[in-house]
Amino acid sequence: MKIRAEEWDESILDVEDYRVERALQRGALDALRRARRCGTDFVIREHGQVKSLRPQEAAPYEKSMLENLERLNRKIAELDGPSPNALSLNEKAES
Question: Which residues contact 80 (CB under 8 A, 6 or more apart)?
Answer without folding.
Answer: 15
